Amino acid sequence: MTLSGQERYRFSEAPIWELQRTYYEQLGLQAWANDQVPQYITSNPMIGTAYAEIIFGFLQDRAQKGFTTEPVVVLELGAGVGRLAFHVLQQLCELIQYAGVPLPPFRYVMSDLPWKNIEGWQQHEGLKPFVEQGMLDFARFDAVRDTELSLTQSGLVIKPGELGQPLMVIANYFFDSIPQELLYVDEGKIYECEVSLKYPEQSATMGPSEVLRDLVPEYHYKRAAGYEDSSYPYHEVISFYLDKLEDSHVLFPEAALSCMERLGALSRGSFLLLTADKGDHRLENWEFAEPPKLIHHGSISLTANYHALVHYFERKGAQSQFTQHHYKNLNVGCILMLEEPMLHPHTRLAYRRFVERFGPDDFFSLKVWIDKNYDTIGMQQILAFWRLGGYDAELFIQSAERISALLPDASDEELLDLQRGIDRMWRGFYPMPQKYDLALDCGLLLFEMEQYGESRRFLEHSLHSSEEEPVITVLYCLAICSYEQEDDEAALDYTRRSLLIEPEHEEALELLAALSQDPAEA
Q1: pLDDT single digits (tens) 57-67
Q2: Among 57-71, 248-262, 290-304, the least confident range
Q3: How far is Cα of residue 144 from the mean position of the Cα atoms in its chain?
Q4: Beta strand 304-305 with 167-172: parallel, antiparallel or unpaired?
C-alpha cells in the first residue's frame, strides 16, 4: 500500500492533524451543520444538566472550604458549536437561583482554535445574555502550545499562578481529536509507530474533509527507547505499560497530558477535569490492541486514552471517577487534581447521581432504542422521556408525528403537560446551522391542540424567520388562529395570501366569505 519513497511521520506530526485544523478553520460553526461532525451526544440538555449539577457541587465545596471571593473559572476546551455551554449555563443559573445559598462567583470560558468559531459565539443570540451578565467569556486556545488564556470579552489575560481557585476544565470530544503518539509495546520494549499516508488520486482538488476520508495510513515500527528514559516526563506511565502490556498498540496522550499540566499551572497545579469521549480508562481495553483506525465524520477522531490520564494524575494525588459499569457510546469521567480531593463531597456526589447512577451514556442508549420505536409508545412515555432529556428539541422533532397521532385520545393533563413542555423547550432551544424549523413544528402541533394564541406566536415566528416562500398550510393556520382571536384584519390578510397561492382552497374560500360578511368589511 505504501508508495516507494513515501515519507514517514511521527504519528503526532502526520499531515492528518494539519488537515484536521484546516477543516475546522475553513468551516467554523458550519462544521456541525446537520451533524456533519457529531455533537448531539455530548451537547444535549441532559448532559448539560449533569455538568451543571457537578459544577454546582464544586461551587458548594469551594464555599464550604471558605473560598467565596475568588471566581471559579470553568474552561470548555473545543467548545465547537456552543450548544453545551448554553445548556450548562442555563441549568446552572436555575440551580443557583433555586438553592439561594452563598457560592463563589464563576466565569465560564468557551475556547477553541478557529477564530471563526469565536466570532460565531459572539454573534449568537442564545449566548449574548450570559456575556452581558459577565458570566461568559471566550478565548482562542491552542491545546498543544498555549500557556495562558486571553479572554476576548473582558480583556483579561490569565497567566500561570494567577487563579485563586482550582481551574475547572470541560473536554468533550476533545482528547480524541488532538495529536496523539502511537506506541507499540512488546517484550518489554517500546516502539514508535510512524505513519506513511497514501493519498487519493484527486487529493489536489479535494477539500480537507474528503482527503481525510479517503487517505490510507500504513504503520512502520521504530525502536523508541527514549520513552523509557527517566528524563521523559511521562516515563512512569510508560514503565507501567511495559510491565503490564504485550503486543499492544497504545495511543499515548502526550499532548493531552501536557495540556492539562499547562492549564493546571494557571491555578498552581490544581484542576478538576470533566470529560466525555470515546475513551478507555480500563487497562484491559488496551491489551493486545490493533493499530487504530481513523474514524471519519467530517473531521477524524481516535480513541482517547483516559487510562494514561488517570494513571499519571493519580500518582500526583488526584482522585478519579469513572462509572463502574461499562459504557456503550460515551465514557464520562471526572479527575479531581485537587488538594484533598476527597473533601469535595458535593462534587463527587453530583457525579454519582448524574453520571454513575444514570448518566449521558445511559440516556443515549435509551434514545437509540426510542428513535426506532416511536410508533409503539404512548403519550405518557413520550412525555416522560422528553422530561428526562431536558425537553430537548431533537426529541420533540423526532416524536412530533407520533404526538400528533396520539392527540385525539390524550387527556387534558397530558395536553397541558405537552403545552408546558413546548414552552420549556423553546426557552431552552439553542439554534444551530441546521435546516429544521422548530417553530413550525410547535405551531402546527399547538394548532391541532386548538391553542390558537400560542400556535399563532410560533407560526408567525416561523414565517418571519424563514427565507423560503410561505406555504399555504402555515398561512391558512395563521388565518384561523387570528380569526379565533377575533383579529379579523389579520385573519383576512392571511386568508387572501393563502388564496394567492391556491385560489381554489375550499376552507380559505369559506373563511373569506365569513370574514366578508363582517359589517366592517361590507
Answers
A1: 999 999 999 99
A2: 290-304
A3: 21
A4: unpaired
pLDDT reported for residue 1? 30
Asked which of 137-151, 231-245, 393-407, 429-443 is least confident by mean pLDDT, the reply is 429-443
pLDDT band, residue 2 (cuts 50/70/90): very low
Q: How far apart are CA 51 and CA 75, in angstroms?
A: 13
Q: In terms of Cα–Cα distance, which of 31, 11, 44, 26 is closest to 364?
A: 44
pLDDT of 450 strictly over 70: yes
Q: Measuring CA to CA, which residue among 416, 363, 359 is closest to residue 389?
A: 363
C-alpha cell at 30: 458550519
DSSP letter at 352 equals: I
The CA–CA distances, whole Å, from 267 to 71, 140, 151 equal 12, 19, 16
Q: What is the CA radius of gyration of the chain?
A: 27
| Closest by Cα among 454, 438, 434 to 395 | 438
Q: What is the mean pLDDT of residues 223-227?
A: 94
**Phi and psi of 70, rounded to 5°?**
-70, 140
Distance between terminal CA atoms of the chain?
Answer: 83
Q: Whole-model pTM?
A: 0.92
DSSP H or E stretch at residue 186:
strand 181-186
- pLDDT mean over 8-18: 87
Total length of the chain? 522
Exposure b/e, 272-310, CB count within 10 A at least 16 = b: bbbbbbbbbbebeebeebeebeeeeebbbbbbbbbbbbb
Cα–Cα separations (whole angstroms), residue 389 to 62, 76, 206, 370, 395: 29, 22, 39, 12, 8
Which long-range contacts (C-beta less than 8 Å, at least 24 apart) are formed by 129-132? 130/89
d(CA 360, CA 47): 5
